[in-house]
Amino acid sequence: MSNLERKREDFRKYLDSTGAIDNLTKALIKLYEQKNKPQDATKFLRKELCLSCHDEEEFESLIADLDESNRKICELEREIAKLKGNIKRSSSEIDLALTNGFDDLNAAAGDESMLKKFLSKQIFDELKGLRTNFKGTLLDCIQAGFENLSTSNGIFACDAEAYKIFASFFDPLIEKIHDFKNDDKQAELDWGEACRLPDIDENYVKSVEISVNRNVVGYPFAAIMKIEHYEEIMAKLTNAVKCLCSENFKGKLFPLDGISDNDRRNLMDEKKFFKNDNVDLINANATRFWPQGRAIYANNLKTFYIWCNQQDHFKFIACDSNGNLRNPYELLIEGINQISKDIEFIRDERLGFITFSPFDLGTSLHVSIQVEFRNFSSENRDKFEEIACKHNLKIEKIDDDKLYVISNMKCMGMSEFETVKELADGIIALIDVDKSLLFTHQFTSASIDLSAVQPLLAEAKLPGEIKPINYTLKLKPNIEELSFEGYVKIFAIFEEPSDLITLHASSELEIKENEIKLYKNGPDIEHENIKIRRVGQNIKKSLLEIYLREKETQGTIVTLEIEFSGRIWENTEGMFKGSYIENGNENKVYLATSFRPNNARRLFPCFDEPGMKAKFLVSILRPKAYTTLFNTPLRTSENIEDKYQMDHFELTPELSTYSIGFLMSQLSAIERTDLKDPLTGNVCIKVYARKDLHESLLSSNVYERIEKSLNEIKNYFNVDFPLKKLDVVALPNLFTVKATDNFGLIFYKETQLTQNSIYLVAQELVHQWLGGSISPQWFTEFHVNKAFVDFIAVNTAIKLDNGREFDRNWPMTTLYSIYYEFSKRYPHSKITGMKQETLCSKTQLVLRMLNYTLGAETFKKGLQAFLVDRDHKTFLAEDIWSAMTKQAHADKKLKNDETVSAITESWIKKERLPVVTVKRDYQKNEATIEQKLYLRERPHDVPEADKMLWWIPVILTNEDDLDFTKYTPKTWMKKERQIKISNMPEKDKFLIMNAEEVGPFPVNYDETNWNMIANYLQNTEKRLTIPNLTRAKLLHDCWNLAYSGSLNFATALNMTLFMKFEREHTLWNPIFTMIDHIGRHIDISSVHTKFNVYFAQLLQPLYIELENEKVDDEEKSKINLRNLAKTFLCRAGYKPCIEEAQKEFKKWIDSENPDDDNPVANQYICPVFRFGTMAEFEFGVERVVNFNSEKKQSERTYLLKAVAGCPNQPEKIIKLLNMTMLEDDEKLTENDLFLILSMLSAGSTGYGTLIKFLDNNWTVIKAKFESKTNLWDRLISTATGFFTTQEGYDLVAKLYKNRRNEFGSAEHIIEKSMKNIKEEAKWSNENLPVIEKWLDSQDYDHSKFIV
Fold it and tell me: Which pLDDT value is given to residue 939?
């Protein structure tokens, strides 16, 4: 019998033994006996074979019964939610909750709570028994603040009346938030005209979003709303949107109760879907009955949305992805006006539109504009901050290196149009600054975004009752539906007895709670189930909590199995989708992950803390046309159906969850042209990119850069690369994340890999050891991790290419920026997300100091010992310091009672820097060295400044022994205020402390020592015996110390005399910075012209030399130095520059149609308007007035800025002011006047002429502009707010005295101006005579300058 026959016989016996053949035969006989054969024979047989089965009619009836039961369940759930929502606390319960909450609030440590600052005992006792007409209580307004004692929000109005009933609480809060006093009144509703908004350079603007919140008359707010309120408000919207019939507004209303997965996904992709996951709103009871009564209206064009009952009753949103401001503004106005025809919104005469949150009162208008700044960096941050402060803007850095979100901080006290106008003006000013910054280098920090880490510092750690050992993870992404399914098996051990397992799982994950399995493992245990009491998700904290019926003992090993599903995002958090075009028109899609710092929980349930390391065994399903890259090499792959492959990867070493990652794409590996085998040591390196980019990457030597960097880092660490393979990916269109350093798999932006940078490559490679193989124990250690990575990456780049990509400016750019930031009275004031970056930069410089003072070899060996000790483990900063201390003691670099920890703690834990003063006693051959807090800004009144002390290395270099490679400290100032040092050099020899900027602190000397240094530097041969960095430090220190009032300006100016011989760009950088700082301060005085001419004469030979040395492919630093020199010389009136500009300008004057064509480069326009004739100026004004509307509006804007901001003669500005303020020229608008005022504030000729013009024409100007509050306030601010001398104070005081009580809304502006000028005038009175006297002692050749 054949094998097939044997199988058939076995199957027949099986059917016979089970009765299947007998039953089937009987059914067929019965079918045969039927006289009227049924149409559906199969149905007949099915019924005969299963007499108990339901027929179709019965089945359909059962389905109907099930549907009805489900409907009733939904109704009951709604009723339960309604009843729960309607439960009201009794008066005694409210009193008790208020009392307990108030006690807890005042007992809590810290002062982060906004509620704590404004809820005094007196106000609490006064208001706790009051009720609004909707029965709202004080508790309803502040319960979110009670729940979260550290929130800066947590305060909401229970209804519109709450702002009056609880006014004694809300009014001071509103004044603090909005600078809106009790007697202030919100401006009338005024949208203005969108066409009057100024043009913003759309090359900079990436997207615009404008929104307003509105609440309906006759309804309470979310904290006390009933289900009926939610439903009625949504019904109003349902009816109102029917009037949105035009093409701009046609769309659909999506109730969230029952929204389809596809619709939810689309709204999420558009980033216009809202959820109930805001902690403050949850605590405020504003998410009850979710998702009932919630809806989103979206137009088909994806430019207009209405959120219903998210926070306020309605939120209107208009957006534009092309960077246009006017379009969404017009759309928002029209949309609100249409809806307002059917729905009346609450508006108060004093407070404006009434909102749930007091932060949104007034216009409730919020504008967010995403802008790309090309030259923004920490060293020039002050210029951006100044504009942000002036225009009431908030600047937030987002993940991308150059993208920032600019938004308005003010929504009270101005009309809608004024708010948007001020924002637009501010962004234009910011863009102008960005364009003007020619010389800047920003060290990017690719892997750790500290602005993202900062909020996690306060995050509560997991209880720690259980620790993962390894994960088995299976993922099935669906690219078409942008969703995924997954399964995770976690092998874990109980670290302590517990009946609770807590791990992370984002609220976005759908957890199959009923399918969760938990069982014990062990040598004597075989799959013993553990009973689960219940499972819950803590939405606020993204936690999955599994409660057990019994407590498990310490040491119990368990396996936890969880099935889950979720969606794929486009916002680069968790798993995200990206796309690109290849071969001209072929759209390709990829999936990638980004888990830093805590986004693994968005993909799968896990212990998502850096200290919870475990091994991962991962399998990922992919379409066959795709390739999947993971942290480890591919182990096996199996076919799943026809279209898919399941890839199984090798087990990882122990990793933190943020270090794992994968990429599923159709990118291809770049074939090596130099080697057949892509191996460096035992590491297989492959670079992946779209095919169109392969040639560009090869020409940038990408493999060579990776290999050289890898070998250099490996040799430095003396530890092999921790993996067998390294995949480097140039990920297309990776807009919103920096390079992502998954362990063994690094994602770069395409531009980062093509720009031939070693530093960017080295950063991510260092992270494979520090941050990957060895992980920070908690988020508090991330800034130390990042500082080490940056420091080693910089050293790697400098060693491999001699610092070429830094233009030899490292560490000066970093040093100068932190000197400036930490010397402010209030560091990190205006720009969020920068504080941690600055602190990290300081830590990096502290590491540099240790590298010098301990010695590079000791520093390296200490780090190597740390790496060996913590291999594949976690670390605290103290672990590094301990390893270095041990090595330093062994190498006799520190005394036994000295530790690296003591040194670093004194630097890292303070957001400040010291200044050291060396005063020599030339008779005794001694020196007193003193340290104190370094402050540039006045007044020097920082609290507890006298208690701040640092460990400071005393490294001294004297004129007799100019060896600048000796970095071993003579001693350490061990948090001592003052020490004495003996054996100083002879009295005619200078001394330098902290040469080469070993430590991040400036140094001051007595005047004699400064003058000896200055004289030495003027000797052309001797000067070069002092290295570039030390010469730059001496210049930078003396100028900043003089500016801060710690050094005589004559001494500082003496230190500049040698610059006429200087050609190194590293030394000119601090000079240009100080010319700008000091120049702005002395602008109005007679000293300014002399000051400019002096420095212009220093620059003149440098510029001529640079012009004569022009060559192709010259260094970027030389190009920038030439441009900066020329810019300053033109501004100072250098005749060759002015003559060249006038010659070019004449071509425009002589052209046949000057309004149609401008042949003049922008660089020539300002010098002509500054120093040229009145006729040339008037020609420029005519071009503004007669501007051809068909040309780019930005050209007119630039020309108007030059006309207003460049002139050096008052008569030119008076002509412009006459035209705009007195003559009513129709072609010069109010928008133009705003811009003119902004430009006049940049120089003393501008604001000095303006204040006199205002005083002379007061009656006419006041009558014309006082009612236009924003414009009037700007006018007074510009005319009075920028003086710095006694002369300026007298001008402003005279105006104030002559026009007392006539300033209206600007009264407080001029009063504040006078206060500020008085403080600045003290500086001017002390320093201007000194500066002028010194300048008068110099020889000038005025022949080449227009004075």
Answer: 66
- pLDDT digit string, tens, across residues 1106-1120: 888 777 777 777 778
Is the torsion defined by CA of 110, 113, 115, 118 positive or negative? positive
Find all residues with CB under 8 Å of 4, minimum gap 6, and list them.
none
pLDDT at 572: 60
Residue 764 bears catalytic tag: yes
399 among annotated binding-site residues: yes
What proportion of the chain, given as a percentage, has pLDDT over 90? 44
Q: Give pTM, 2 decimals.
A: 0.70
**1124 band by pLDDT with thresholds 50, 70 and 90:** confident
Instruction: For residues 387 and 377, give the distance between their C-alpha atoms in angstroms, rounded to a whole number.
Output: 15
Q: Is 171 annotated as a binding residue?
A: no
Q: How many CA atoms lie within 13 A of 1204 on its CB side?
A: 26
* Residue 328: C-alpha distances to residues 194, 270, 764 (Å): 9, 16, 40
Higher pLDDT, 466 or 1343: 466
Q: How many helices (H) and strands (E) does the chain have?
A: 45, 43
According to the annotation, is 210 in a ligand binding site?
Answer: yes
245: tokens are: 């019939």
720 marked ligand binding residue: no
The region of weakest confidence among 439-443, 493-497, 786-790, 851-855 is 439-443
Please state, as a whole number, how many other Cβ atoms lie within 10 Å of the Cβ of residue 164. Answer: 13
Write the single-letter amino acid at 1206: C
User: Is 396 marked as a binding-site residue?
Assistant: yes
CB burial string 601-615: b at 16+ within 10 A, e below: bbbbbbbbbbbbbbb
User: Could you tell me the two tokens for 748?
Assistant: 């770069």
Find the distance separating the first CA and the last CA of the chain, reported in whole Å.
Answer: 117
- pLDDT confidence band for 673 (50 / 70 / 90): low
Please tell me the distance from the alpha carbon of residue 1252 to that of residue 1258, in angstroms, as a whole number. Answer: 10
659 is in an annotated binding site: no
pLDDT in tens, 547-600: 999 999 999 999 999 999 998 877 667 888 888 888 877 889 999 998 877 889
Return the half-sphere exposure (C-beta side, CA atoms, 13 A cut-off) of residue 872: 9
Is position 360 annotated in a ligand binding site?
A: no
Q: Which residue has the tokens 């031939």?
A: 756
- Tokens read off for 168: 């004694």
Q: Is 367 among the annotated ligand-binding positions?
A: yes
Distance of CA 126 to the CA centre of its chain: 42
The one-character DSSP state at 625 is T
Mean pLDDT, range 1216-1227, rounded to an integer? 86
Q: How far apart are CA 1284 and CA 1286, in angstroms?
A: 7
Q: Is 77 annotated for ligand binding?
A: no
Q: CA gyration radius for the chain?
A: 36
Closest CA to 387 of 430, 436, 432: 430
Contact 864, 825 (CB under 8 A): no
Residues 6+ away with beta carbon under 8 Å from 792: 713, 716, 762, 766, 770
Q: In sequence order, what are the residues at sequence separation of 6 or more whose Cβ sits closer than 8 angstroms to the Cβ of residue 775?
A: 610, 611, 613, 655, 656, 659, 873, 874, 875
The residue type at 1200: L
What pLDDT, in 10s, does the model give residues 988-1044? 999 999 999 999 999 999 999 999 999 999 998 899 999 999 999 999 999 889 988
Given the residues 707, 764, 781, 1062, select the one marked as catalytic.
764
Q: How far is CA 1297 from CA 442, 496, 858, 1289, 1307, in A?
A: 48, 75, 68, 12, 12
Give the sign of the dihedral formed by CA 1030, CA 1071, CA 390, CA 408. negative
Report CA-CA distances (Å) from 882 to 772, 865, 873, 901. Answer: 21, 10, 16, 7
Q: Which residue has the higher pLDDT, 536 or 166?
A: 166
Please name which of 1195, 1194, 1214 lies closest in space to residue 1204, comparing C-alpha atoms. Answer: 1214
Please spell the DSSP secondary structure of 682-730, one letter per residue. Answer: TEEEEEEE-GGGHHHHHHTTHHHHHHHHHHHHHHHHTS--SSSEEEEEE
